[in-house]
Amino acid sequence: MNYYIEKGRFKILIFTVFILVLSAFLMGANSEKADAAIRLSKKKVTIKKGKTFTLKVKNNKTKYKTKWTIKAGKKVIRLKSKKKNSVRIYGRKKGKAKVLAKIKKKKLICTINVKAASSNSSTDSDSDTDSDSGSATTEPDSNGYTYKLVPLFDDICYYFYVKTNNPDPDSFVLADEDTVYSEDTVYIENCTTAFSDVKYTDTKTMKVKGGYIFKGYDSDGGTFKIMEVSGSKKTDTGLTLSCPKLYDEVDYLIEKYSKAGNSYFENLSAIQSGFSSQCLYSGVYVLGEQKKSTTSPYYGLSTSPHVDQTFYIQDPYYREGSKSMLVSQVYPFRYDSIGFPSMMSSIAKKLDSKATVAWSSSAHYLVNVTYDGVTKSYGGQGNGGGQGITEDLIDSWYTFDNSSSDLSTKTSFEEIEKIIRNYGAMEVKEEETDLTPLTWADVRNTVGEGSYVRLVLINSIFGGSGTGFTYLYDNNGSTGYFSDAWYDGRYFNNHEFFSKGVTFDTASKAAIIVKDPVIHYPDDGKSYYYNYTAIDKLTNYNPETGVFKGYVKYYYDSDSGNWISSIYTGSKYYDSGYKAIEDEDFKAACTLTLEDVKAMNVDGNCDKDPDEFFIYDMESEPGTKVSGSSE
Fold it and tell me: Which value, to the nearest 10 degrees, does the dihedral of the CA atoms of residues 591, 595, 601, 607 take?
C-alpha cells in the first residue's frame, strides 16, 4: 500500500475533514433543536365517558413513528386509530389515565381525565346492561353501526354471536392479528351454514335475533379488530371487541388434566382419561331424504381399510341433504378411532417435544408414544353421542333471546354434551326400503363350507374402492376368512382379500392354509387335548381317520424355517397338568418344510381370478352364483 501524499492534496484533505466535522456538529445541533420542538397538542385532556378525543404530535419532522401506549388507567381509556402523529382516545369509564407517546428516545405524556357521562350518552361494554354477555363497543362506526361479541362456548370456541344493527353480515369481519395458533391473521366471518336448530329471522342473510352467527378457527381470544370488507379489501374501522381467552383442544386438555410434579406418562394417561370422559364418537344432525344408489343398488360386502378389522355389510341407501345442527358443531370433542389417537399424538408432542410418536401397526386406533426409552400405547375413540334424527324431534333451539331455554346461554361442555346424548337416545323411525337387509347369517348360509366371494375393496380410510375377491366359510356360526396366508394357489393379504399377482417369493413367510389335514395323535394311552378339549369330544376331528375337518393354519417359524400347524401349538396331553407333546411323528405331521410348500404350488393361481364365486359387490343380487370363467 502506498502511504505517500503530496503536500497540496494533504491541505485539501485537511479542509474536507474540517467541513465534514462541522456539518455533523450542525446537523446534531439541528436534530436536538428539532427534537426539542416536538410536543403533544395537549398535556391535559378532559373527556366524557363514551366520547373520544384526538391527541396529536406537533412538529414531528423526523422519520420515526410514534409508539402510543397507555401508561396508566388501561380500564379508563382505550386507544384507537394509532398513527404516526395522532391517536384517538376513547373514554371507557370515570377515572384518570396517562397516555405515553414515544418517538425514538423522546417521551411525551398526556394526562386524561374521564368524567361521568350524561344520562343520554352512549357507553361501552364496561357499563353495558344488555342481558346477553359479551364484549361490546356502543361507539358507532362510520356508518353508525354498533357491535357486541358473545362466544357460544367456553374455553374452546369456533362459533360466535355478533349482535349488531349492521344489515349486511358480509360487510365486516373480526380480525385476530395476534394468536398463538396461527402465523397469519385469523378472521372470524359470517357463517353461511343453515343450522336446523337455529331460529333465523332472515334466512337470506342468515340473520338471527339481534345479529348473526360468525365462525372462525385458530383464535386464542383477546382483542379482535372490526374490519370493513369491500370486495377483497379489508379496512380497519378503528373499533375493537374483546374476547375471553380461548384454547385449542390440545392446550385445553393439557391445561385441565395435567399436573405439575407428575411424570410424563402420568400426565399423558391422566389427559387421555379426561379426554375420553368427555369425548363423543358422533354428533347429531337432521336426516336428509333417503335415496337408493343407482350404480350400487344392492346390499353387499366390503373389506375394511383398517388392518385390525375385516368386513362390513354395505347399504345401498343413503341420505341426501342432511342438515347440520349447531349444538353439535359447537361441541369440540367428537372424535372417531382415527381422530382420537391423532389428538393423543399431538398432545404427546406438545407435552414434551422430546417424545416421538408412531402409529401402531396392529391397531388403527392406537399410537405408540416413546419417551426416555419407554414406549406406551394411547388411543381409542369417543363414546356414544348423537345420531341422525328427523326434524320433528328437535327440542332445543338457539333463539338468541336470552330465555332460559335459549341454547346460546348454554356454554359449558357438560350442558351441550348432555343435549347431544339425549338426541342419541331418541327413537328414530326407520323408513321403509324395497330390499330385505343382508345379514351375516345369510352370508354364512350361502358360502357354506367355503367359497370365493366377489366384494367391494376399500383400500383407504380416505376413500377409493374397487372390486375383488376373498374367501369366506361358515366357521361354526362365525364367518371364517384368511389373512396374510396362502390358499388354493392365491395370496390373501392383511386386509383379507386376494392380492392378485403376488408370488410366493414376495410373501414367503405368510401362513399356509390346508383344508382337512390328516394328523394322528400318538397311540400311547395318554389323554390328549386340543385347546383344552379332549380329542374324542372334538366335533371336527375323527380319531380313526385323523382328519381335522376345516381350514387349518400353518404359521411360519423363523427358527426352523418351517411352517407349524396351529394344531400342534394348541395340543397338549394331561399328566398332573397340561404338557407339550414331544412325539416326533406327531410334530412331523404338523410341520410343512420349504420343500413341502413348494411341492404344493402355493402360488399356482396367483394371476388368475377364481372361476366360481358368489357376488356381494352391490351390483347384483347378493349371493348370486357365478360359475365358469370370470374373465
Answer: 100
